[in-house]
Amino acid sequence: MLPKNFLRSSLAVLAVATTAISITHAQEKAPAMAESDDPYLWLEEVEGERALEWVRSQNDRTLAELQASPLYEGLLEEARAILTSDERIPGAALRGGYAYNFWQDETNVRGLWRRMTIKDYVAGKSDWDTVLDLDALAEEEDENWVYKGVSCLAPAYERCIITLSRGGSDASVRREYIIGEGFVEDGFNLAEAKAGTAWLDADTMLVATDLGEDTKTDSGYPRLVQLWERGTAIEDAPVIFEGEKSDVGSFPFSVWADGKYTGGVVRARTFYESDYNTLGEDGQLFALPLPAKSSYSGYVDGKVIVSLQEDWEIGGETYKTGSVVAYDPETEKTSLIFAPSDRVAVDGVSSSEDTVFISLLDNINGKLLSFTPTRKGWKKKEIALPENGVISVSSVDDETGDMLVYYENPTTPETLFYVKKGGAPRALKSTPDFFNAEGMVTKQYEATSTDGTKIPYFVIAKESVLEAGPAPTVQYGYGGFQVSILPQYSATTGKLWLENGGVYVIANIRGGGEFGPEWHQAGLKTNRQKIYDDFYAVSEDLIAKGITTSDQLGILGGSNGGLLMGVAMTQRPDLYKAIGIGVPLLDMLRYDQLLAGASWVGEYGSPSIPEERAFLEKISPYHNVKEDVDYPRAYFFTSTKDDRVHPGHARKMAKKMEAQGHPFLYYENIEGGHGAAANQEQQAKRLALQYVYFANLLGLDAE
Predict the structure, then answer these.
(1) What number of helices (H) and strands (E) belong to the chain?
(2) Beta bridge partners of 440
(3) pLDDT digits over 221-247, tens only?
(4) What sign does the CA torsion over 683, 688, 693, 699 have?
(5) Residue 271 above 90 pLDDT?
(6) Cα dist. 88→77, 131, 414 in Å?
(7) What SS3 state is found at 439?
(8) Handedness of CA 80, 85, 88, 91 (dihedral sign)
(9) Separation between Cα atoms, residue 631 and residue 658, nearest integer Å
(10) What is the rounded distance in angstroms from the CA atom of residue 589 to the CA atom of residue 621?
(11) pLDDT value of residue 258
(12) CA 82 from chain center: how many Å?
C-alpha cells in the first residue's frame, strides 16, 4: 500500500515542500537580479574555502558566547538524556509478521535498524534482532552514513532497498540488501542522487534517478522513470515516462494488492498539481482521471483512495475540497468516503487491503475513523482513543489491517496503542514524564487577524507562571505547504523551557493544514501577507492578554518557518526581543535558483513574473533589512549539508547584517541536512544553544 498523502510523503524526503511553475510566454519574464547586484554571492559556494572560513569564524564567536552561559551544560545534558533515553518508545513499522525499528542512542550514534516479531513487540519484549548496524557500516566503509529509510519487497519483505545519505543530505545512495545475508554486490544499487524506486517484482523495479543534467528537472529531481531489470545497467534501462524540465519531478510508485504489484508514475507538475499514471499489464502507462490538486492516498478493495485539494466534478457528482473519495478504475465510478465541515479537516489517510483510516483535526483536536466498503457504501467507525490531543497513525500492516497509533498532548507524554483489526486500542507503552508537568496547563485561544479571520493558538505553561503575569515566551510558527502545527508533547521543550518557567505558544496560522486545503491556499503567492499578519495577531493577543510583553517575547521557526521569522524581523522589529531563524529561506529574489528552490514557486510565486516579483520584493528579508533600523538580536542556525534549503540564505542575510552593524548570532552545523542535525548528539547541542539564546535575551532564569 502507499503511505498517506503519497506524493507529499515522497517529496518530503526530497524537498521542504515542492512546487514548480512553467513560464511559457517570454514577455511575462522579468530579469533576475544581476550577480553584480549581490555582493555576497560568494557565500552561496556551499563548501567554498572563503565561505567556510566565514562560517567557522561565526561558529567560533557564537559558540564561545552561548556555551559560556552557566545554563548551557545543564541544558545540553538534559537534552542528551532525553534524546538518547532507553525509555523512549521504540516506534515500529509493521510488515511481514515483524515490527521494524530504527534506534539511536549514546552507544549507537548512527543507529541500529532492527526487528522482532509483532507478537513479541506487542508483548513488550526488548530482545531485538539487529538487521543493520549503521555505526559499524560507517566505520567499515569509512563513510559518514546517515540512515534515510528502507523499501522492502512484499510479501516477505526480506529483500530491501536501503537509502543512505552522506552527512544527512537529501541526495543519497540506494543499495539492495537481503535481511540475514547482507548487501547484494551486483544488485539494484544506485549512485548518490535525489532518486526514487518502486518494486514490481524481485527482478524488476521502476526507478527515477540522476543520469546527467538532461535527466533532471530545473528543481533538481528526476524527470525520467525507467523500467530496470536485474542484471542490466541502469543507463540501459528503457525510459517509460519522461516529464518536462519545468516540472518538479517524476516519481515512481507501486501498490501491492491481490498478491502482485501494480506500478505507476506521479508526474509532479507542481507540488500541488500532479498527473497520476498506472502501469497496465501490457506495460503501457495510462492516466487516472484524478484532479490535478489531489493525492493518491491508498488502494482498497480495488479502488484508488483520493484526497482532494480542490473540488472534483466527475460522473455527475461534485466532491468538495478536503474530501476523501474512492475511484474504481475498472468501472470509473466514484463514492464519497468522508467530507469535511467548517472546523473539521482531514489530517492524514492510511489504508490496509480492505480498510481506509482517516485522521481528523476537529478544531485541531485529533480523532481517528475507519471506513470499510459495503454494498451500501462506506461503513464508518470511530476508533476509541483519548480525547483532546494529537492522534498519529504510525504504521498499518497492509495484510492484517492491524495498526500502531500514538496519542499525546503538550503535557501528556506519547502513548503507543496497538489496534488489532476490529478490536479496541490497547496501550503498549508510554513515554516517561521527561519533564515535571505538575501544574502545567494547555489553553487554546483565538486572535483576530487584520481581515477578521479567527486564528487559533495554544499556550502551554505552568498555571502559576500565567497567573503571575507577563513571562518569557517563545512563539512557534510555520505557515506553509499545508503543514499542520499541532499541540504535541515535546520532552525537550518541556524540560529546557517550560519547567524553568517559560511559556511556549503554537500559532495555527494560515498556510498550514489545520483546517484543510482552503486554510493553506488562502496564503499562497501574493496572498502571503495574510500568513504574516496572522502571526503578528497572535503575538499582539499574547501581549494584550498579559501573557508576555514585547521585551519578553521570542519567536522561532525553521525552513518555511525560517522565512516567517525573517519577515517578522524586518516587518515588525518592534514586536519581538529574540528571533530564532532556522534553515531558512531569506533571499526571495534568488530562492528559485538555489538547490530545490525552483520547486517552491507554486507556494511563494515566481521572481520571473512581474506581479509576483513585486510582492516578493516587499517581503524578502534579505532585501528589506535596513541599516538604520533597530532589530532584535537574531540567532541564525543552518547546516552546510542542507541540500534542500541552501545555507546561502542564512549566510548572506547574516553577512549583510554584519556589514550594516546589526548584532546577531550564527551557527552552521557542518553536517546534518535540512534537520540541522545528523544524530541525537548534534540535536541535543542544537536545542541547548537555542534555549540558552532565548533564556539570555528574554530573561529566563533556568535552574
Answers:
(1) 15, 39
(2) 462
(3) 999 999 999 999 999 999 999 999 999
(4) positive
(5) no
(6) 16, 20, 9
(7) coil
(8) positive
(9) 12
(10) 10
(11) 87
(12) 22
| Residue 391, number of CB atoms within 10 A of its CB | 23
Query: Residue 203 contacts by C-beta under 8 Å, 6 or more apart in sequence?
Result: 229, 230, 231
- Over residues 488-508, mean pLDDT: 97
Read off the C-alpha cell for 661: 552593524
Contact 354, 373 (CB under 8 A): yes
The residue with cell 512484499 is 154
Among candidates 39, 42, 69, 68, which has minimal Cα distance to 55?
Answer: 42
How far is the C-alpha of 25 from the C-alpha of 350, rounded, in Å? 41
Q: How far apart are CA 324 and CA 364, in angstroms?
A: 18
Question: Which among 243, 237, 288 has a CA at the least distance from the CA of 262?
Answer: 288
pTM of the model: 0.87
User: Are residues 325 and 333 in contact, defined by beta-carbon separation less than 8 angstroms?
Assistant: no
Catalytic residues: 559, 674
Q: Residue 175, CB half-sphere, CA atoms under 13 Å: how many? A: 17
Residue count of the chain: 703
Residue for grid cell 513499522: 93
- Residue 598: the pLDDT is 87
Q: Is 684 helix (H, G, I), strand (E, B) or coil?
A: helix
Q: DSSP labels for 632-647?
A: --EEEEEETT-SSS-T
Give the model confidence (pLDDT) of 27-82 as tens digits: 223 333 444 589 999 999 999 999 999 999 999 999 999 999 999 999 999 999 99
Helix (H) or strand (E) holding 176: strand 172-178
User: How many Å is the Cα radius of gyration of the chain?
Assistant: 25
Please give the Cα distance from 414 to 535 (Å, whole number). Answer: 28
Q: Decide: 476 and 485 in contact? Cβ < 8 Å.
A: yes
Q: pLDDT per residue over 303-360, tens digit each? A: 999 999 999 999 999 999 999 999 999 999 999 999 999 889 999 999 999 999 999 9
Which three three-digit cell numbers place residue 21?
511553475
263: its cell numbers: 506500478
Q: Which helix (H) or strand (E) holds 443?
A: strand 440-448
Query: pLDDT, tens digit, for every residue of 109-121?
Result: 999 999 999 999 9
Sheet holding 274-279, edge to edge: 249-257, 260-268, 274-279, 285-287
Query: Which pLDDT belongs to residue 483?
Result: 94
Beta bridge partners of 13: none
Q: Are 678 and 168 in contact (CB under 8 A)?
A: yes
How far is the C-alpha of 154 from the C-alpha of 176, rounded, in Å? 14
Contact of 694 with 700, CB cutoff 8 Å:
yes
